[in-house]
Amino acid sequence: MKKLSELEKQGYEELDASLEISLAEYGLAWKKEDNEIEFIYGTNTNNKDNFNRFDWAWLPADTDPKKEYDWVDFEAVASFSGDSTPENFLALPLTDIVFTLLLYYGPENVFGSSYFEGIKIDFEN
Q1: Which H helix or E strand runs over 20?
Q2: Which of 4, 50, 58, 64 has the CA that lies 20 to 30 A from 43?
Q3: pLDDT tens per residue, range 6-38
């Protein structure tokens, strides 16, 4: 089990007002280190629809989403995200692109299969 305070000290970034909200409600946080981005993503939710199990994935910071995700329908994803064109969508930071892809396609399609039950994060610290 990881503690939320540990992740905060390690410099994980969030989508919303806090790391806890980002992980529990959106199922995503990340940390940029050297030339890569380490993502923590939700793999399971509890009966309140909050994420309660997590896994990790890494992407090079200079990942080209069009090459990495050449199977994605960027026209549909751009429309889903509210961006007017795929070009506008692909101009977003990689972390925003990954988050939208997770929402649209799910973590298994974006990061691959998770082969364990996931770790728990202690939000009570």
Answers
A1: helix 19-21
A2: 64
A3: 999 999 999 888 999 999 999 999 999 999 999
